[in-house]
Every structure is written in C-alpha cells, then in structure tokens.
Design goal:
The chain is built from nine helices and no strands. It has 205 residues and is an all-alpha fold. The structure holds fe (ii) ion. Fe (ii) ion binds next to helix 2.
Length: 205
C-alpha cells in the first residue's frame, strides 16, 4: 500500500516539477538537470548503503523538488512556502514523509550551506546536495555555468564566467559530504581545473 502511494506521489511530483522547471526557461536549470540529480542521488544512495524504500522515496522527492522556487528565479515566494503548499496538496503524503522531503528539498543550495561537517543523521540531505553539486562539475557543469551566466547575468563576460566557475568549484571541493560523491567528483574536478587553467593561460590580459 505504502509503495503504491509512493508511486502515485512520484508521478504527480514529476509532472509538477517538469512544468515548474519550464517556467525558468533556462537550460542550466531545466528538467534534464533534475533528472540527472535524481539519477546521481540514487547512485550515491546505493553506494552509501541506503536500501530502505522510505529513505529512497525521500531522496527521490527531495531531488525532484530541490530547484522548485529557487531564490535565483523566484523572488516573491519563499522556496519553503511553495514546496510546502505543493506537498500539502498531495493527499496520500503523511506528515513524517512531508517533513523529511521539506528538509531535503529546501536545504540543497550551495550558496546557503555553511556546514562542512558530516553527520550521519543528515545523510539523505547530503546525498541530494552532493548530486546537485556534482552536476555543476565536469563537462555538464561547464555548459551549465556558461548558459546560466548568458541567460541570467546582464554584464556577462568570459572572465566573469570563469571566475564564477572557479569560486564555486572551490566551494564545492570543501562542501561535498559523502565519501561516494568525493570519489565520483575527482575526475570532474580534474576536467574543470584543466578548462579553467587552459582559459587563464591563453586569454589576452
Ligand atoms: Fe539544482
């Protein structure tokens, strides 16, 4: 019964998120990004030994909703309020699941993260945070930085994009929390470092 409810909730949430992401009109934060974060979250969860259906449901829901009403795009309403309203509309969702999903989906943002320590009780949140951060690295990450800056920043320049990429990548290096994500991220950090160094070497100053 629980599994059936979870399936129904996931179908409804995917529909809602797919539609919501369209409103950003930004390929750096579209439904593909969400699908990549969900997929990577589940991979990290598996490697971190998470098997419980309830925990995996929380992770999937948190990953699906993590960019809904993100403060970069939504200026009027808080992310917590928008996600809370959506979750309240899901009749089959119980209070405990709702609380867990809210905790994960509204705390993914790197810019608001000040904690570099690992605490086992927050592992589901860390998994989604790490998956989202890894999607800012490697070739996908590079393309996402470029498209985000061109779409959203008025005075964009290559150097500004490279600086944002460099600063954010340095922060991600400090803020990845799970051992699995740290291992996966290694090759992606390498690629982004090569890209930044190559740019800095050849740009005319
Ligand atoms: Fe994201």
């Amino acid at each position: 019964m629980i599994t059936k409810n979870y399936e129904k909730i996931l179908i409804e949430t995917k529909k809602y998120v797919k539609n919501y992401m369209k409103s950003y009109n930004d390929i750096s934060h579209d439904y593909n990004h969400i699908c990549e974060v969900v997929k990577l979250s589940l991979l990290i969860a598996k490697k971190e030994g998470i098997k419980n259906k309830k925990d995996l449901f929380h992770i999937k829901m948190g990953a699906l909703l993590h960019d809904v009403a993100d403060s970069k795009y939504e200026k009027k309403n808080s992310q917590y309020k928008v996600i809370n309203n959506f979750l309240s509309s899901l009749k089959q969702l119980n209070k405990i699941d709702k609380k867990e999903i809210l905790k994960i989906s509204t705390k993914t943002s790197l810019s608001k993260d000040t904690n570099i320590n690992f605490n086992k009780k927050n592992i589901k949140l860390y998994i989604v945070q790490d998956a989202d951060r890894i999607n800012s690295l490697g070739s996908i990450g590079i393309m996402r930085y470029i498209s985000f800056n061109i779409i959203n920043k008025k005075n964009h320049s290559f150097t500004e994009i490279i600086n944002t990429m460099k600063n954010r990548t340095n922060k991600i290096k400090q803020f990845l929390k799970t051992a699995t994500a740290k291992k996966i991220a290694k090759k992606h950090f390498k690629l982004i470092d090569i890209f930044i160094n190559n740019y800095n070497k050849f740009i005319i100053k």
